[in-house]
Specification:
Elements: H1 10-21, E1 26-29, H2 31-40, E2 52-55, H3 59-65, E3 69-73, E4 78-83, E5 86-92, E6 94-96, E7 108-110, H4 114-118, E8 129-131, E9 136-138, H5 143-148, E10 151-152, H6 158-164, H7 168-178, E11 182-183, H8 185-193, H9 195-198, H10 203-216, H11 220-230, H12 232-236, H13 256-266, H14 271-279, H15 284-287, H16 302-316, H17 321-333, H18 344-354, H19 359-371, H20 377-397, H21 410-417, H22 423-438, H23 445-456
Parallel strand pairs: 2-5, 10-11
Antiparallel strand pairs: 1-2, 1-8, 3-4, 4-5, 6-7, 8-9
Length: about 475
């Protein structure tokens, strides 16, 4: 097996060469080497990213060798070198003391050899170092062989590795799913035993790993199964376990959990869509009516229950508020059924409720949901195709679908009613939009100004002369 030096950016080669010229050892280590090896094995590994350099040069020596640096982790031996367009992390070979907080070592000792540095890494596939200048490959823990056998194995004692950093159990599942590797038995067996340390990990770090699993999983559903099997899912989203074994109805071949997992696979690899697919039916078990004679369940209003549950889960994961609300909207709107006999006003009101900008994302979710049913899929997709065509036609035709589309604005309302800024202005504009959704021809300045007094009737304008 020959690794391709062409995969290494020239900016990174410059850093390696400068260190070597100064009489120092210099290797690429970690995920980039793993992906270069995968490419050499014929896998579709994509372009390797994050080329980190390991060296025996001390941090202050690295700072002297390169004119543009940043002490991003100098206490742990890491200096970021600004080389061309790349920010290259250069870390001194190091050994680590005990991990007392489940995240960071209590002490760091600088070493003279790469093998000691590789011994502190999490998994054998990440404990490979390579010098592309001399084609010197160091693999003391058999990571290349594990990649050849499609196996994920911890370096040394799995439980010890997992208890050092509580995020590692989740990283094991993420790597298994995204790299298509099987967890070796001792490594998987150690995960449930380390969940107490996992419980100390910040939700922001957990969120980032979960998003990588959902978006990059091949397939993501395998990652979800591993999360369930190892007990991690019960820690991060126990609500999803309520769907395990929960049978549905004549429209579905699978229980709620399997349907959900398949919907994630069918959804485009975009974070918002996949999060919505993961949570779109989370409310079903709690909304379920008692089963009928054939064991079928109905799930009235499960989308509204799911909307609130999705918010709770995503806020727990520390997602940005805007993303939380986008996913909650998609969960709420995924389930309505379109009928060809809908009138144009109903279509416009539906578009206005969802928002034109969110429709493409909603269509992606609905198509994934339909494909994951396992029954009556073609009929559902045909309905969705007609829906999309009808909505697109109305989008092209509609004159106003949101308040900002109206031919008048807040200042016009204030002038017409002689009122100051306040809630009543928005309430009047909302009523005018309702009228325009029913009758698009009303959206002219003259006609809307004529409707302002009627729209304000019954509202408190705070104007004693009104």
């Amino acid at each position: 097996m020959r690794l391709s030096p062409d995969l290494v950016p020239e900016d990174v080669v410059f850093v390696l060469r400068r260190l070597r010229t100064a009489g120092k050892q210099a290797f690429i280590a970690g995920g980039a080497v793993r992906d270069v090896v995968r490419a050499a094995l014929g896998e579709e590994a994509g372009t390797p990213q994050d080329f980190d350099v390991a060296t025996d040069a001390l941090p202050e020596e690295v700072q002297r060798l390169f004119p543009r640096t940043a002490p991003t982790g100098i206490a742990h031996g890491t200096i970021t070198v600004l080389s061309g367009t790349h920010h290259v992390e250069v870390t001194t070979f190091r050994g680590e003391g005990p991990y007392l907080d489940g995240r960071r070592p209590s002490s760091v000792t600088f070493l003279g050899e790469i093998e000691g540095d590789l011994a502190r890494r999490d998994f054998t596939v990440n404990a490979i170092a390579w010098d592309p200048l001399s084609d010197d490959l160091r693999d003391p823990f058999g990571g290349v062989g594990d990649l050849e056998h499609r196996r994920l194995r911890a370096v040394g004692d799995p439980l010890a590795r997992f208890r050092e950093d509580g995020l590692r159990p989740l990283r094991a599942v993420r790597f298994a799913a995204t790299l298509r590797l099987a967890l070796d038995r001792p490594t998987e067996k150690a995960i449930p035993q380390a969940l107490d340390v996992f419980g100390k990990v910040a939700w922001e770090r957990i969120r980032d790993e979960l998003l990588k699993l959902l978006v990059r999983g091949k397939p993501a559903s395998r990652g979800l199964r591993l999360l369930r099997r190892t007990g991690i899912l019960a820690r991060v989203a126990p609500e999803l376990l309520e769907g395990v074994g929960f049978q549905q109805n004549a429209f579905h071949a699978w229980d709620v959990f399997r349907h959900t997992s398949l919907a994630v696979d069918y959804a485009p690899a975009e974070p918002i869509v996949r999060l919505a697919a993961l949570l779109h039916d989370v409310g079903k078990p709690r909304a379920a009516e008692p089963p009928g004679p054939k064991g079928d369940h109905t799930f009235y209003r499960h989308e509204f229950i799911g909307e609130e549950m999705a918010r709770e889960i995503l806020l727990r994961w520390k997602l940005p508020h805007r993303d939380v609300e986008r996913v909650a909207l998609l969960v709420r709107e995924h389930n309505w059924y379109y009928r060809d006999e809908w009138n144009d006003a109903t279509v416009r009101r539906t578009i206005a409720r969802i928002g034109p900008a969110e429709l493409p994302t909603l269509w992606k979710l609905r198509r994934a949901d339909l494909r994951a049913r396992g029954r009556l899929v073609d009929e559902g997709l045909q309905n969705q195709t007609r829906l999309e065509a009808r909505f697109e036609a109305e989008l092209q035709r509609a004159s106003a679908l949101k308040i900002s589309d109206l031919a008048i604005g807040g200042r016009d309302v204030m002038n017409a009613l002689s009122v100051p800024p306040g809630p009543v202005v928005g309430q009047v504009l909302a009523k005018l939009l309702e009228r325009v959704l029913d009758e698009p021809d009303l959206n002219t300045r003259e006609r809307l100004l004529g409707l302002v007094p009627e729209a304000a009737r019954g509202l408190s304008t705070a104007n004693p002369q009104a």
